[in-house]
Amino acid sequence: LEPFLRLLEAQLQDQRREHEEEVEALQNQVDAMKEEMEKQQQAFLQTLQLSPEAQVEFGLQQEITRLTNENLDLKELLEKLEKNEKKLKKQLKIYMKKVQDFEAHQAMVPEERRQHERNRQVAVQRKEKDFQGMLEYYKEDEPLLIRNLIT
After folding, report:
1. I want to staple 50 with a disulfide (CB 3.0 to 4.6 A). Which of 27, 54, 109, 149 is the partner?
2. Distance CA 55, CA 111 (A)
């Protein structure tokens, strides 16, 4: 019973620590938002003291700044996506090359080896009918064996 209680106590302490860290992070967010809100209130009060033309100009400047920041964020995202696209294209080329090499290797297998594989396949089928047990095969014949087992 004691080990179980120790385990529960350790889990409770971990949860308490996580909760405290979460509360601290949320408090930091609230403080940052309060600070931002105070800045916006100051800017708003200053804007109210300006003439109508200056208010319009100030609003336009703020909108230009917002759009510029948004544009920079979008450019950064575009660069990231282009980089990812290049990486994926490189991987695709590598895999295509591997497939071509594999297909070329399969095409280069001599006809007599293929005939030998067919004969061995027939022998394996006969053995399976007679008894059950282990199957001996060459490592390079594994894909062919798996394909035959599936079909």
Report:
1. 54
2. 86
Q: Which two tokens stand for residue 35?
A: 């600070």
Q: What length does the chain have?
A: 151
DSSP 108: T
Question: What does the alpha-carbon distance between residue 14 and residue 4 come to, in Å, rounded to a whole number?
Answer: 15
Cα separations (Å) of 40 from 9, 29, 30, 31, 35? Answer: 46, 16, 15, 14, 9
Q: CB within 8 A of 78, min separation 6: which ones?
A: none
Per-residue pLDDT of 117-145, as tens digits, reads 565 554 444 444 454 556 777 888 888 88
CB atoms within 10 A of CB 144: 17
Amino acid (one-letter) located at 4: F
